[in-house]
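Comment on the following before class.
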Amino acid sequence: MPRQTRLPLLFLLGTCLLSACASAPTPGSTAAMIEPQRVTEHRGSDDLLTAGLGLDGLRAMAPPAFADAAAPTAAELRRRAIWNNWRGIADLSPTGGYGTVYGSVAAVPGREYAALARLPGAKQPHRVLVQVPDAFDQARRCVVVAPASGSRGVYGAIAVAGPWALPRGCAVAYTDKGAGTDYVDLDAGIGVRLDGTPGRLGEAVDLAFAPEVPAGATGVAFKHAHSQDNPEADWGRHVKQAAEFALSALGQAFPAAGPFTFDNTRVIAVGVSNGGGAVLRAAELDGGWLDAVVAGEPNVLVEGHGSRPLYDFSTEAALLMPCALLHLPADSLPQPPLRAQVEPLWTLRCATLQAAGLVQGADTAAQARSAYEQMEASGWTDEALKAGALSVGFDLWRSVAATYASAYGRHGIGAHPCGFSFSAQNPDFSARPATGAERGVWWSDAAGIPPGNGVGIVDTKLAPPDFTLPGLQCLRDLYTGQDAAAAGVREGIAATRAAMPRADLPVLVVHGSDDGLVPPAFTSDPYVAAARAAGRDQVRYWQVRNAEHFDAFLALPAYGARYAPMLPYVYAALDRVAAHLDGQGALPADAVIEARGRGAGAVDAAQLPLPQ
């Protein structure tokens, strides 16, 4: 069990408080202001990278067990959170090549420094956590900052940054960037404390999310939807604040070697998906605090160049994609879960879209063609549509839209403009209070947005025959409509638009050409085009053929056969930018990389060519 130190105060870090990190502060002054609230040690049967599980433990089908399921310890919750976050990002299947062809799960002993940081003006904090290996290289000081992908918790980028950075003697700074898995059970009045254990609202002083709760509110609240902060607008500042916290943690870990500043410590930011968007937002911030950026499959919005907001294309996909997929040959699609069960629903969607005047055609084939042509006209490629079948099968588009509408509009609990809420559910999808066992694993097991892990979407607009269509139409109207609610959502989206990176900052964008969740046509392609138009010649772009968004789903045979993993290219990009910073070569050139899936066999290096 890790040893831990508890310090007396919960430190809420403001950037004004931390401005001294950019230069050499008076010894001890900055550390005294931003001393970590919780420190734990991870050695022996535990470690930083896999919580002592190793590759076999990460591959285990059952999560790490609790000694007492009713009262898991902080150490047990941490181990389980690390297990879940590895499996949510990496392909750990025996034929996937992780740990043999690419990646590392070497045990790395060290310490973790955790706190709740708050941006000036924010209603809620974001989690920051720094892993400091015992073998930290004090002569070549390095911090890798890794914001979580999606809406994941603070360990949400452990598989992205940890395997590259920790074995090299770098510290890793994580942030949940204002989202995360600090769910609040409104029926019980219980949230999540800094150490992951439950705490009662109004009593615990270190709750990671303590929302304003209206009288009589029931169900589940979570930070991405209900913080009222529109966290996406501040992703870049979350990343910088995590880096500032890392310098403080290093000063605590190695006081004789201090101070640790941006002037004497290399800082590289890396992230994938929403984390990729976050590091690109960090790249635009003033000052020389950041040395390089690697952005994998980034969800990023820029002005012009064909860029589209996630909310725009996700609500479009939620409505049209189930029908449009029927236009593509069935054998051209990877098999989404329960394909036989969902095809009748796709056919029904075509009919209800036609009845609503959203597609044309007298039969299913014509309606599917109409939906397909609309999506093609708005920029969707066949490759993105095929990979997007997975998101349709998992109802991911509705999940994204319901959460992000609340976030962009800064809506609190019970105020969703389309009436959506979140709760534990009965088999008939009616809401019910959560059990203690369900609540006890939300922090460790959840992905940050429902449905999943015992929490479902409560849709007050459900109506036959196509039950989710009315709610989806409402969500789409929040982007296309003209009322105040729609204006609020669009205002929130506008606040997330990225500016260009610092002119001399090396930035390497890596994106799979078949990405069906965050298509490069709407995100990376426009970002790179805008950067080139602005004269940012340090921005480079690797386009990976036959790669989609979710490495974790490559464990499904139909997906692994067809698609290559993205993580090898994120790690390779880190190698190249680090070598460039070391003076060992120029930044890599733009590249179109002809990767391929494993077919019926196992991943080997020949399937994953690297740019020269």
